[in-house]
Structures are given as C-alpha cells and as structure tokens.
From TrEMBL:
Source organism per UniProt: Hydrococcus rivularis NIES-593
UniProt cross-references to SUPFAM superfamilies, sorted A to Z: NagB/RpiA/CoA transferase-like
Gene name linked to the record: pgl
Protein name: 6-phosphogluconolactonase
Pathway involvement of the protein, from the record: Carbohydrate degradation; pentose phosphate pathway; D-ribulose 5-phosphate from D-glucose 6-phosphate (oxidative stage): step 2/3
Top-level enzyme category: hydrolase
Keyword Transport applies: no
Catalysed reactions listed for this entry: 6-phospho-D-glucono-1,5-lactone + H2O = 6-phospho-D-gluconate + H(+)
Length: 257
C-alpha cells in the first residue's frame, strides 16, 4: 500500500485537487483497461466534486459508476446517496443508464438487497465465487465518529470478512455498505475530508496504533494507493511542524499552503 496525505488550504482547493486526482486515475484506468470502475461516497463533502465532474468532457461510455454505501431509503428520498449523485452529476451527462449501478433499496429487506448488490457485482465483474472485485477508484469520507462508508463504530458490519456488501447500522437506521474486504482490494482509495469537526477522528485514525472497532476508517488499508485529501480545517494537527513533503512511516505528508 502507498499512502499519501495532502492538506489543502481550504475546501475549494480540496475539491479542485480531488478533481485532478480523480481525472488522472480515470484516465489511467481507461488507458490501461479500456474502462474505469468508480465507487461513490455519499454525504455532503463529495457533492461539489460530482458537480465538477459533470463539467468534464469524459468518455462516459467507458465509466462505470457504483456506490460504496447507501442509506436504506427509496432512490428519490432526500437522504439517498444515489439521488444526490444523480442530481449533482449523472443526470447532467450522457453516461449510459447501464453504466450506473445503484445499490438496491426496494426489497424491504436490507440483507436481501445487500446480497442482491453483491450478486450484481460478481456478475458484472465476471467473478467466480470467493473472488473480490478490484475497483479502479473508491471514494470515501469519514464521519466525526471515524466511520467510513456505512461502517460505523462497534457495529457487526466491521466484523464481516466473507462478503462484499453487508448491512451497516447508523443509530438503528439500516444502510448498505461495501465491506472493508471489498474496499481494500481497490487500486486507489481516495478519502475526502473537510472541516474542523473531523479533526479528532483524523488524529485517532492516523495514530500509530488504535482500535479499528472504534475508528473504522483505520480498517481501510488498500492493496493499491491510499490518498487522504484534507482541508486545513480537518488536517491541521497532522501537519504541526512542517509545510513541505515529509515521510511519516509509510506515508508522505504534503501541505499545499
Ligand atoms: O452515506 C454517507 O453518509 C457516506 O458514505 C458517509 O460515510 C460519509 O462519507 C461521511 O458520513 C461523511 O459525510 P460528510 O461528507 O457529509 O461529512
């Protein structure tokens, strides 16, 4: 795993940097394999990135869009991650409908829909039983509590090691989520983190040792590249002594001040 941390001056710079990085990874995937498989994060942070992607002249037929997690609500519900990404981006570009793979939430049973999406992934990636899809890009955020995707602290989803998709739980509300096992197969994982409220969780996530059940984002150790793009409000305490490139263990920290 190659881990890179960049601290950007503000959220606008964070979004601009995330756009250039995502475009770079999309382009290399398409050049190397003829297509790019991308799993989206939900929440509020990535929305301006999705809006910026809608302005890009991309070969949409070569881009396959999945979701890394989803609230267990109808696709037209204000809380739906699918709805947010469609309004911000996908409804605004000529991407084929078949290239959009939302997590299903209509079976009335989160466990059944988690299995449905797992089956869809296995079929789409043409996998044999037991094989794990390798996404080109997985976008993630973190909550103030250190969760990522819908892998929430001290929940059963964190222990699931034999599935691709499972049921997350936020305060009793079911969600569908990639498992850590699936996320960690990715060629490139990109965390987008903005805002001072994320600072305490980031310190725990970046600590040399810590409890993954308490800070689930610590579970994300992909085989490929791991990028942390932070704004200064979120990442300030990770960069207390230097403003240039420096190595901390296996990670390099760069502040674009
Ligand atoms: O479905 C979701 O909400 C996300 O996948 C979730 O993991 C999100 O990334 C974090 O909660 C951060 O959310 P914000 O970007 O809104 O801070």
């Amino acid at each position: 795993m190659k881990k890179l941390v960049e601290i950007l001056p503000d959220k606008q710079a964070l979004i601009e940097r995330s756009l250039t990085l995502v475009l770079e990874k999309m382009q290399s995937a398409i050049q190397e394999r003829g297509q790019c498989t991308l799993a989206l994060s939900g929440g509020s942070t990535p929305k301006p990135l999705y809006e910026a992607l809608a302005e890009q002249p991309l070969p949409w037929e070569k881009i396959q869009v999945f979701w890394g997690d989803e609230r267990y609500v109808p696709s037209d519900h204000p809380e739906s991650n699918q709805r947010m990404a469609r309004q911000a981006w996908l409804d605004r570009v000529s991407i084929p409908a078949a290239n959009i793979h939302p997590m299903p939430t209509s079976a009335g049973d989160p466990a059944r829909d988690a299995q449905n999406y797992e089956t869809e992934l296995q079929q789409w990636f043409k996998l044999h039983s037991g094989e794990v899809p390798v996404f080109d890009i997985v976008l993630l955020g973190i909550g103030d509590d250190g969760h990522t995707a819908s892998l929430f602290p001290r929940t059963e989803a964190l222990k699931v090691s034999d599935r691709l998709v499972t049921v997350g739980n936020k305060d009793g509300q079911p969600r569908l989520t990639f498992t850590a096992r699936l996320i960690n197969q990715a060629r490139c994982v990109i965390f987008l983190v903005a805002g001072e409220s994320k600072r305490p969780a980031l310190k725990q996530i970046f600590a040399p040792s810590g409890d993954e059940m308490t800070y689930p984002a610590r579970l994300v150790q992909p085989k490929g590249e791991l990028w942390w793009l932070l704004d200064k409000a979120a990442g300030a305490e990770l960069n207390s002594t230097t403003s240039d490139q420096r190595a901390i263990g296996d990670q390099s920290l760069k502040a674009n001040n």
